[in-house]
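Follow-up to my earlier ticket, as requested here are the two runs.
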Amino acid sequence: MMDEEDFFRFCQINEMVDFERDSAGNVVVLPLSGARGGIIGAHLTWALSSWNIDSQLGVGFGCSAGFTLPNKAVRSPDASWMTAEKWNQLSRDEKERFAPVCPDFVVELRHNGHGLQFLLNKMREYIDNGVQLGWLIDRFDKKAYIFRADGSVEIVGINAVLSGEKVLPGFSLDLRKLLKA
């Protein structure tokens, strides 16, 4: 089994492949999204980044950022965000690696090759490790799952406008516009 340093080096050597590691230390190979999924992911990251630049409340991340969660899993959401306070508590070295912190907000997009159950389990893992709000956007089944820190899960149709609620005040995402690509 690879320790934290070995896994980080392994990911750097194999930079053209996306990996995660589950809490048991198993390496998971993530499928590429395909072109349409890449467009949707780029639009999502842009929307979150644009809001974050205006709000100045924290730090936003794209799909290549990895985080070591409290349960020792290393996960890489399609988009994520954390408060500036949480980010500023990390050392310079921690910021350059798989930051040992759980984001406050995560989004996972269901792409070709992503099993729904795998993503639902991943979302529950995020919540169990400290995420305050998470969205799983399932473009194939035309719905979105909203995961909250209290353990509740709300399922909405693809015509919904998702709210950042208290975690991302003033942020919203119109799924119809996002999924037009």
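Run two:
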Amino acid sequence: MAIRKISTNLWFNNQAEEAAYFYTSIFKQSSVGRVIRYGEVRHPIDGLSEGDAMTVEFELEGNTYVALNGGPQYQFTEAISFIVHCDTQEELDYYWENLSEGGDESAQVCGWLKDRYGVSWQIVPAMLNDLLADADSSQYNRVMKTLLQMKKINIEQLEQAAKGEQDNKGE
């Protein structure tokens, strides 16, 4: 795995290696690369010992990441999220079910979820922005009204809303 000019760093308490293997088990074109372990000399962070993973390089669908075990001082927030663009409902369901497993169900809204590590994801249809960007403002309103009622997105319901063929009930 080649080091890229820009990589995303994810700060975990002590679950970096576990998280990297979890994410690479979900995304088909992915791999775990180099794992650097803490040695005797390290920053004094509670709970991390010599031999624990310090950083784990991994790749998901061509994007590179570094998972860092840095201790509990920083937490993930919804201000940063990863968007997974899905072409089919089957693909959307797959990512939703796998990434949401063990996550915070109260954080599920409009295609957003929080996984078991507190990382926020948006699992959305690839065509969502096309439905929302249509020049017809009434289409935007119908689609948005439907979307705002959903947790996991239902593509068929959004398409029906775009055409004005449904009563805007979300999942």
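The only thing I checked on run two: The chain is about 30% helix and 25% strand. Let me know what else you need.
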